[in-house]
Structures
1.
Amino acid sequence: QVQLVESGGGSVQVGGSLNLSCTASSISTSSTNYMAWFRQAPGKEREGIALITGAGPVYAASVRGRFSISRDKAKTTVSLLMNSLTSEDTAMYYCAADRVLGGSWYLPTSLRYWGQGTQVTVFS
């Protein structure tokens, strides 16, 4: 059974940093070749914020220049380094893997496997 387990969430002051990690198990490397981070704030839709594939990283405009996605060589762990956090970054953060053809990467329907999420709260 495929598992994606996120860690590293927590509470941080505005301007601070957090580093999220997602470890994948029971999943093929072809599936983990396409991994992404999404987030969902209260009352808002889930949105893709960072994607990593063999071609490199892609970021949503809202996090570009502040967040950095990376992956280990074994393609079992993907990380999200978040800098210069603002209250707008408060959300549940989800790791996802394996592309479903036909959708844009930032849509939740474009990824097959999901973690349970880790909460990030940014306070002033």
Note: The longest strand covers residues 91-99.
2.
Amino acid sequence: VQLQASGGGLVQAGGSLRLSCAASGRTFSRYGMGWFRQAPGKEREFVATISWSAGRIMYADSVKGRFTISRDNAKNTVYLQMNSLKPEDTAVYYCAANPTVWATQAIQQYDYWGQGTLVTVSS
């Protein structure tokens, strides 16, 4: 599966952005999906994950209550709605697919990655 992330940009603290990740192929619904981010000088970290049916969703503690992950299997797309953004949310955001139907925080289980989209939050 090929992934294309979009929706990043520059926003002021307290603002919102919605990231999208479009997947190619007809088997999108067979993949668990995740969002990760990587800030300058830091390791890539887990943000959110969603199972194939959206029945299982998990968030990093740092974004819980502010970010919402969702998916539309008919459109082969996963979303990340980001509200109440903080400067520390500044990073390149990556969507990823793992070849199970489950939600997982484990980065090593993701085999397919998008190219990343930059989110910059100014104070």
Note: The two ends are 37 Å apart (CA to CA).
